[in-house]
Structures are given as C-alpha cells and as structure tokens.
C-alpha cells in the first residue's frame, strides 16, 4: 500500500476508508471511516481490534452487543470537541445516524477485552502546543493519560491557517528509553474558504539510515498518510485554510507516547521561549461554534 492514500482509494463497503494492519503492512494500527446518509445504519464486528467511534460530523447511536450510547457529535471537526464511544474487541456493533454524518473508527489490534464505554466531550483534555507560527491545538481524547485502552493512542490536532504543526519533525520507531515504537496514521480534513472552495495542506515524512521513506505531498479532506517509521513533520496549513488531522498510533510495546525530535531541527523548540501562542487558539471547545 502507498504511504499516501487519496480519499476513496481504500474504500470497502460500507466504509469510505479501510486501513487494516494487513493493508498497511504492519502489526497494530488501523482506521476506518463511515460516510452515512440520513437514516442509515451500519453493522460490523470488531474482531481482534479495539476501536473508537469518533464523530467527524453529525451524531449517532452506537449499539455494542446489548448496550447502547448516543453520541451528540458535532457539525464538523472545526466546530467543537466531540464525545466518542470505545468499542471492545470481539463485539457486534451497529451505528445508526438519523441525520447522517461522517464517523472515524481508529483501531488497534489487541488480545485484551475492555468494557464498552462512553467518552464525554467535557472530559477530553485540550492542549495548546508550540508558539507563534508553530502554535496548534491537540485534543487528547485517547492518550495513556486521558482514557483507558489496551494499545490504541489517538488524538486530534487543529492547526490555524498559515501555521506548522508536527514540528520539529520527530519519530517514534525504535523501542527504548527515548521512544516507543508506534505505527502512525494521519487522517486529514481541511477547512474550506468562505465561498466554499476546498482547501489543501502539506505533509512531510522522511527517513533515516536503514529506513528510507520520502513523502512531501499536498493533502485534502479525506486523504491519509501512513507512517511506519521515519521523521514526520511538518504538517503545513496553507494561509486561510485551517487544518485538522486525526493521529492513530499503536505498537507492540507498552502504551506510551515517547518520541525523539530530529536533532537537526530540535533547536526550534528553544526559539519558542518568549513567543506568544497564536491568539486564534483554541479553535474549538466543547461549545459548538456558530457558522461564520
């Protein structure tokens, strides 16, 4: 599978996107996306994966075996922080979307079964990282510190137009004291212009000795970049177009998120001292933003 997947290239009914460990050529991380019409429902089994139902737009009812929760969701990824539901491995699941919507299902292969749970939006830690033109917002909805899972780590990153995130470039492909070996998926959405023109952004991934990878690509809403290893960053939001991406990570080791900066660019962090956070942040909160 290519490291860059354009929207629709990895579709498999009923999903608009299917990235399994087998398709990605690795062992643990996965992602599916459901694009649901008004009144539709989709049923599936989680198999040997733990999953999360994360509304990208719209809300839904989620039935897992004999339990059910209702997700309020959101108008878009740029309008608010959303609630979500955790799906255990070995479960039969049905998602119903009365008003339609788009839903991400980040996943990780596991041998452990945890309970079905609801994740409220107001319990999601919202973090502002960086400074100046490297300012961004991170919604830490499924990190080791914020939510219990076996292997899955997932966060949302919002980058105001003109800013860089995932910067300095960093990697997490070697197990040790400084890093945990994690396979990573980037799923992108880009805000449109006031007139409705579709926006675009850019993603960089590059390798290190013995592990070659070279991605420098324009990305649009629904595109995916797969990162089995290597330095990744920056994620570049074009001026005028806010950028969203969902990061999905998992690996064989302990559920930790440890990474190393590219030593060539690590000095950049020190340059943020004394710089202000971008005043446009946070872009979202638990309160739905009104349409502009």
Shape by Cα distribution? globular
The topology string of helices and strands comes to EEHEEEEEEEEEEEEEEEEEEEEH
- Give the number of helices: 2
Q: Per DSSP, what share of the residues sits in E-state strands of 2 or more residues? A: over 45%
CA distance, first residue to last residue: 39 Å
Index terms:
292 residues; mainly beta; nine-stranded antiparallel beta sheet; 2 helices; 3% helix; globular
What does this structure look like?
This protein has helices spanning 21-24, 268-271, and strands at 4-5, 17-19, 29-36, 40-45, 49-64, 67-74, 84-87, 92-97, 101-109, 117-119, 126-129, 136-142, 153-159, 164-165, 170-171, 183-190, 201-208, 211-219, 224-227, 231-237, 243-250, 260-261. It is mainly β. Strands 2, 3, 4, 5, 6, 7, 8, 9 and 10 form a 9-stranded antiparallel beta sheet that branches.
Which secondary structure elements does this structure contain, and how are they paired or packed?
Blueprint: E1 4-5, E2 17-19, H1 21-24, E3 29-36, E4 40-45, E5 49-64, E6 67-74, E7 84-87, E8 92-97, E9 101-109, E10 117-119, E11 126-129, E12 136-142, E13 153-159, E14 164-165, E15 170-171, E16 183-190, E17 201-208, E18 211-219, E19 224-227, E20 231-237, E21 243-250, E22 260-261, H2 268-271
């Amino acid at each position: 599978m290519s490291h860059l997947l354009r929207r629709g290239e990895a579709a498999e009914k009923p999903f608009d996107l299917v990235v399994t460990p087998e398709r990605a050529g690795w062992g643990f991380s996965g992602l599916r996306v459901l694009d649901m019409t008004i009144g539709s429902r989709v049923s599936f089994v989680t198999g040997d994966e733990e999953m999360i139902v994360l509304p990208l737009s719209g809300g839904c009812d989620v039935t897992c075996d004999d339990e059910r929760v209702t997700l309020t969701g959101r108008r878009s990824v740029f309008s608010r922080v959303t609630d979500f539901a955790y799906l255990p491995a070995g479960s039969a699941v049905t998602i119903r979307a009365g008003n339609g919507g788009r839903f991400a299902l980040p996943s990780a292969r596991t041998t452990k079964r945890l309970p079905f749970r609801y994740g409220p939006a107001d319990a999601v830690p919202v973090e502002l990282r960086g400074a100046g033109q490297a300012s961004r917002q991170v919604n830490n909805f499924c990190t080791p510190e914020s939510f219990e899972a076996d292997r899955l780590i997932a966060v949302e990153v919002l980058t105001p137009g003109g800013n860089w995130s995932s910067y300095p470039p960093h990697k997490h492909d070697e197990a040790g004291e400084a890093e945990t070996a994690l396979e990573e998926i980037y799923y992108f959405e880009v805000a449109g212009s006031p007139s409705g023109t579709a926006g675009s952004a850019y993603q960089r991934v590059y390798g290190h000795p013995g592990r070659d990878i070279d991605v420098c690509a324009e990305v649009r809403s629904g595109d995916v970049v797969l990162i089995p290893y290597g330095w990744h960053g920056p994620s570049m939001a074009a001026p005028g177009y806010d950028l969203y991406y969902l990061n999905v990570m998992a690996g064989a080791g302990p559920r930790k998120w440890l990474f190393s900066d590219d030593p060539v660019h690590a000095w950049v962090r020190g340059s943020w001292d004394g710089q202000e956070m971008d005043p446009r942040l946070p872009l979202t909160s638990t309160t739905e933003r009104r349409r502009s």
